């Protein structure tokens, strides 16, 4: 495993205040379960479908309809828990959270308040190479998503789309272990990466697949340590919850302005009121949505339509055995097996498809060279090409490996390799054949190189005189030879011969 140092929390201190304040942040991440059907009905979860086309009677809250648990969603929640090193609760149960909202036709949300399916776990958040921070997970529960009210389509009417009603969500609740805006974004990023590796959530924040409620409080230095020792929340400041954030950038900005708002209140002698707030990116401010006094009484009670959910340890073990290699383990293996830096290994393992592409490419060739080509040439080229995904790469791992093998065997120079890559990228074909057919082979025949060097020396007596005084100018001759040979001369041989002739 990767040798991580857990850095002592370096909490974010807000500058410009009268005194030092630290941040304390806890996140409730809502991750849509990657299931084709809803949590309690067979209706489709397809994104972007015609409004109200994916609605079963039970989703619409029709009288007499009964929810039936989707076993696939339960399996994915268990898998997620296992991927976060969490406790799996063999006994869990569903509760009704009662409230009225037009996009909630049942009049309640089915959730798991008292007995969540997943208990305590952890996420290692990468802050810098070799430095990870541990964020504790408190619980993960399964619940239904609500529908969508649409207020901007008509001046007089609001509309409701129930396609999302009843879609399965995993609510992943962290402990307040996050100490700054960057760390909060890194935490969401790592969580998203793990979920995508597991295949339990698509993690598409734009589509609302992954959203976070961000809880923020401020405290004086030392207070958080007391909380850590005792787990007593009274050492912490009063928190505000910023609802429904679906962009990493906004999460960071919202935490920052919210912390400043709280500091200003406290330093002016006031008190932070616990409330739910919304972030407005246009004004870069948070606004009160509802305070604790007017907070809902949800009248939670066990859902009488559903039996408690009891699962077998054998089934959990089966799911455990099916877990894929996760990001930290893959990164450590890439470093050990291919001699990669932690940075390169992190880039290659950011997305599981990229890691698979790299691994196939690196088979039987130099790992570092392969990493270099995948990261710098291929990723760079895909980015320029309309930000294409690795799955759309016109160059296959086989083809890229072919190019790398030609470099390693000195058949082509690094420069020619770039030309060759461009040909393969735009025209396709077998790299070795292209090199053969288009005469791109490197000139390693020292006789031919010597002849080219001699000619350039003979034609440029002034440059020769200068280069004799300043050996650094030899580079000019190397450049001329490369030009004369259309980049095909072996650069190592050219360097040697130029140095030898100039000193002679
Ligand atoms: P609720 O369900 O009412 O929102 P929870 O106790 O479940 O309350 O906490 C929700 C989130 O708030 C958790 O992620 C938790 O870590 C975080 N949290 C609790 N106390 C604080 C605090 N003082 N500062 C920041 N975050 C906090
Ligand atoms: Mg909450």
What attributes does this structure have?
18% strand; alpha+beta; binds magnesium ion; binds adenosine-5'-diphosphate; 504 residues; nine-stranded mixed β-sheet; 16 helices; three-stranded antiparallel β-sheet
What does this structure look like?
By secondary structure, the chain is an alpha+beta fold. Helices cover 39% and strands 18% of the residues. It contains 16 helices and 16 strands. Strands 1, 2, 6, 7, 10, 11, 12, 13 and 14 form a 9-stranded mixed β-sheet that branches. It has a 3-stranded antiparallel β-sheet with strand order 5-4-15, with no helix packed on it. Strand 13 and strand 14 (285-291) form a beta hairpin. The structure holds adenosine-5'-diphosphate and magnesium ion.
Provide a concise account of the structure shown.
With 504 residues, the chain is an alpha+beta fold. The protein is built from 16 helices and 16 strands. Strand 6 (121-128) and strand 7 form a beta hairpin.
Identify low-pLDDT runs. Answer: none
Global Rg: 30 Å
Question: What distance lies between the first and last C-alpha atoms, to the nearest angstrom?
Answer: 55 Å
Average pLDDT, rounded to a whole number, is 93
Tell me the total number of β-strands.
16
Give the DSSP E fraction (strand runs of 2 or more residues): 15-25%
- Helix % is 25-40%
Class per helix and strand makeup: alpha+beta
């Amino acid at each position: 495993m990767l040798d991580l140092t857990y850095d002592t929390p370096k909490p974010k201190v807000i500058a410009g205040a009268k005194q030092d304040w630290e941040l304390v942040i806890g996140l409730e991440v809502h991750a849509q379960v990657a299931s084709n059907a809803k949590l309690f009905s067979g209706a489709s979860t397809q994104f972007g479908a015609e409004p109200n086309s994916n609605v079963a009677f039970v989703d619409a809250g029709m009288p007499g309809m009964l929810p039936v648990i989707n076993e696939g969603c339960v399996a994915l929640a268990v898998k997620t828990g296992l991927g976060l090193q969490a406790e799996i609760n063999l006994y869990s149960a569903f509760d009704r959270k009662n409230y009225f909202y037009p996009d909630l036709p049942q009049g309640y949300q089915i959730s798991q308040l008292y007995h969540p399916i997943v208990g305590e776990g952890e996420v290692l958040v990468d802050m810098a190479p070799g430095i990870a921070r541990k964020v504790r997970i408190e619980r993960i529960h399964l619940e239904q998503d609500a529908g969508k009210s649409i207020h901007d389509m008509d001046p007089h009417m609001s509309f409701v789309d129930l396609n999302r009603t009843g879609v399965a969500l995993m609510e992943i609740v962290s402990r307040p272990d996050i100490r700054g805006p960057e760390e909060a974004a890194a935490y969401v990023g790592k969580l998203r990466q793990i979920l995508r590796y597991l295949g339990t959530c698509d993690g598409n924040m734009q589509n609302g697949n992954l959203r976070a409620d961000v809880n923020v409080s401020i405290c004086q230095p030392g207070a958080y340590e007391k909380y850590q020792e005792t787990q007593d929340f009274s050492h912490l400041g009063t928190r505000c919850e910023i609802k429904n954030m679906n962009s990493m950038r906004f999460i960071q900005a919202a935490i920052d302005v919210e912390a400043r708002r709280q500091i200003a209140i406290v330093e002016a002698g006031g008190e932070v009121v616990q409330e739910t707030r919304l972030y407005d990116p246009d004004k870069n401010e948070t606004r009160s949505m509802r305070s604790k006094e007017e907070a809902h009484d949800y009248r939670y009670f066990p859902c009488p339509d559903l039996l408690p959910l009891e699962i077998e340890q054998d089934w959990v073990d089966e799911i455990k055995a099916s877990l894929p290699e996760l990001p930290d383990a893959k990164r450590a293996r890439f470093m050990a097996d291919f001699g990669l830096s932690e940075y390169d290994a992190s880039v290659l393992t950011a997305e599981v498809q990229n890691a698979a592409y790299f691994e196939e490419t690196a088979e039987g060739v130099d790992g570092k060279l392969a990493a270099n080509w995948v990261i710098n040439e291929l990723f760079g080229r895909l980015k320029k090409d309309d930000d294409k995904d690795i799955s759309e790469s016109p160059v296959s791992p086989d083809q890229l490996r072919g190019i790398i093998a030609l470099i390693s065997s000195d058949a082509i120079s690094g420069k020619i390799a770039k030309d060759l890559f461009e040909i393969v990228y735009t025209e396709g074909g077998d790299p070795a054949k292209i090199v053969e057919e288009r005469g791109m082979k490197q000139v390693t025949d020292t006789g031919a190189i010597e002849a080219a060097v001699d000619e350039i020396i003979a034609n440029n007596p002034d440059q020769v005189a200068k280069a004799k005084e300043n050996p650094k100018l030899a580079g000019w001759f190397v450049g001329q030879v490369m030009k004369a040979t259309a980049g095909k001369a072996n650069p190592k041989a050219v360097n040697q011969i130029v140095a030898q002739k100039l000193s002679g």
